[in-house]
Amino acid sequence: MTWRWTALRLALSAYILFHLAATITWVLPNSPIKQELMPWFRSYMLPFGLWQAWGMFAPDPLDSTITLESQVTDAKGMRRIYEFTKVADMPWWLKMPKFRHPKFAANLMVDEYAPQREMAARHVVRALGLGPESFPVIVTLYYQVKPPPPLGVGQSDPMAPSRIHNLAAFEFSSWNEVHR
Fold this sequence. Notes:
By secondary structure, the protein is an alpha+beta fold. It is built from 6 helices and 4 strands; from the N terminus they run ααββαααββα. Helix 1 packs across helix 2. The longest helix is centred in the first third of the chain and has 26 residues, at 2-27.
């Protein structure tokens, strides 16, 4: 029994050390050390949504409201719009397990997350349930950007037009390419 307790404590200590090393490496400023260590931790930090970014702090924090959307054009020219989950529109009990969704959408702006853009585009095609006859398809990821309300005003004008910021476009030639 004692050796099991010791093994458990060693395993937990190793995990905690790994997690702390990953977090510290992730928040380091760009340097040769960070570049060398990032591949070790990327496959742990990204899928679990544990990554951090400093875009919310000075000198130029993100002050606009962004929503991630996608347009899919199939082989016949039919266009479909896909809106990613908007956590702000959900009641609190549904928001809790999805609180990382807006972070994913915001971080797609950063070039470091270009592979996740393609992953998101593949998700869109699968979520729309397009069949093999619809291919090839072109998937465009874009943001709807709304400026913040003026100072002293509690809420933005819901009828104010959004700016469109194109993020990326992908062409998938076959159904198998999306479903691999």
